[in-house]
Records
---
Amino acid sequence: MPHQVTKATARGSQGDLAKIADALRNLTPPVNIIAIGGGEGVLKNKNGSTTEVGVISMILEPDDGPNSAKIRTALTDLKLGKGRTLEDVEQFPNIHIQIDDKPGELKKALDAVAGLNIRSVLSMGTLMGTANVGLGFSETDRPKAEKKLKDKLIKVVDHQH
Amino acid sequence: MPHQVVKATVRGSQGDLAKIAKALKDGVGPNHETKINILHIGGGESHEVNGIELGVITMILEPDEPPIDGFILQAIRDVDLDPTGDHHHVAHVETYPNVHISVLDAPGTLSGALDAVAQADLNILSVLTMGSGGGVVDVGLAFEDETTANAARAALSGVNVIVHPAE
């Protein structure tokens, strides 16, 4: 079974990321963060104020079977302080692709899935000139995305737990 | 010089990521002479907050040393995200110092590093895995400025992580 992406949205606040990582460490079995990416989004509102929203996408292990629900519950129930919790926790399929580590290669993969909504993107490591990247899609879009990628000869890594 | 982190915020919209990647692939600079490789990338779309859905993308790019960093920012700001509609652009994009750390590839090791930064009362603007191998994971943490980044390096030196030098 391929890994999922776990994506959390928070109203940006210092220290939330550490609390998320703590919650994952304290699960049984402890959950390892294999890949993580994200940051605080900044948007200027029409009245001049600023909205800051933190978005973190993660690939976790183990995340199969009952571990998936444990992760979701731990993050949904996580107390961030001052009565705050995460705004949203989502899990969706990750498609692991391999591309050449050079300019334009990620663009080719993104073009291949044009028309589908990419929910997340995550670097998963580079080795010997090959970059591993995770693209997150809804359950509905996942098979379409895989087909489109393969049609354009983008290598899709088939994961089995 | 260590890499910087480029962090971009868009009002969540399908296809924006491909347009940003195209701008980097096409090249930056006065004559688009420098093609940019995306070494590491991470991000996603937020849940709707206050009626707004944001996409946040964090990247480490190469080359990214001055003056190319400025050209990169300009190229991303210039991307027309809706050429057939309202011609809106990226809501915010900036570069930040990257603190490169290595932690053991095991549960809780990144948490220990993040705790140390939180206890030092420092704000992490972005986090990005930069690869793994030999039982170690490389992670980039972005901070507002070099002063904050150096304070983070000091805080991280007290925990079980390798902090890569700034220079």
---
Amino acid sequence: MDPDYPLQPSERFLDAALREQARLGAGGRDEEMIHRILQATVHRPVNAVLRRPLVAPNLWDRRSIVVGVGAVAAIVTVGVWVLSSLNYSRRTAQEYQFVVRRIADPVADPAIRPSAIVAQAPLRSLPPGGWMVHAAHPNASPLVGLSPVPGYELIASLGPALTDSAFDTLRQGRLRIIADHQSATDMGIRYEGRVEIEDAEYRIEAQQATLPPLGNVAARSIEDDRDGLDSCLLATEVRVTQISTGRTASAARLRYDLLAGTMELSGLLAFVDREGPTPAWQRGDRLRMTGSEYQIEARPVDAKASFPAP
Amino acid sequence: MEAKFVTNICALAKCYQDMHFLTIDDRPQSGDLDPGHPEDFAVLVERHHRDLLVYAVALTRSDATARDIVQDSFIVAYEKMHLFDVTRDFATWMRGIVRNKWREWLRRERKYDLNDNELARIDAAVAIWQERQTQGHDPLSIALETCLTKLPEDLRETIELYYYEGCTGDEVADRLRLAPAAIRKRLQRARSALKQCLELRGTGDGAGVMGHT
């Protein structure tokens, strides 16, 4: 607010309306705030709801005093234990923002080194720790007036929102990740222990998940199953809920390609489709979900793990 | 003139009744949505959060505080849903919670701001747009966008620089090579014209053609 321009009370409604109009646009929504509200209300785990006793206890009778002293002792003991183990089991929450957009850079050329790809990327100030992945789409038609080899790029940041008003944006979103532990490995950032991941389309619970390493840059086909790990979230022992359809599935492994927007579950353990009859599937099958569509593939004879060995 | 005075008095009276939680038979309800149902609550959050943000910004004049207040208000509403009278209007109830949060904030910050009349005017302005949206009319943001396009060029340019580009008043004055006092006057005129346009749209009389006032 500009302190040099004091407002009359009668102007404050219009001033506030204009500020929100400038921030959110006409008809826009404050998605971040809505997300936080829903996380704290309708999406809050049931066991987090406080239950109040119906009858207020008498705090000064003998039994209450004994129980109270015992409870205080227990709390102190647990508190000491928690403090002593804080470095090893701190539950953390992080948010990744990502944008997938069409670019005209000839990134599919294997002769171009990754550093050169970054240099050719459209001018943008990436937030600290931001990373990019470029990919060429083999079936994409050339854009008029642009390079005949259009491609796609995935831009992601850890923490701060991407403010780039992306030209020709295909997809954008955010991943919110909570886990007991996180560590940096050669494969990327690994989250372990009660991992919860959520974006606009999926809710994922997993035992372990890995995001690509920061600064990773690679060129690949958007539909290439083998070489797409640089833009994929990988997880094991997962339970997935597709928010828009209510479908739920459990599987041994998960691969969520942020660039293509496809979710692949291999080693299927359970699958329920609330929108219609669940098709026949067998334990170990592979489930692919893209938007509202899905496809089940029989378990391959020579199963090829899509999750890399640690 | 007399009709306008009567309209204002009526709006103020209705607003006072809302503020003191009296019921009015013809008050619009929350449609067929049940705030106690999680899915309906999510819809109500999406429907009302923007108007409540405008309300909170108008009260606090702080964007960040306003967002905190609106977020806390929805969470409190969800936790106290068993206290919500289903015969009452959800938007009115939410404005009441936002107002209480704002008063708590004033007490914490040891501030005094807005008397009852001024508060009632802001409340009435927000209430009109919440009611219209509940009835399926254009929300405030759409109406405001239309009104902005009808502003004279010089006023629109000033609004763009000040609100959309985030310039201070002095920076706008530098950009437009005008005195700061002239910019202040332009902003006042622009807000006055927009208010007039919104009042026309809010009462269903259609948008008026705006000129210099």
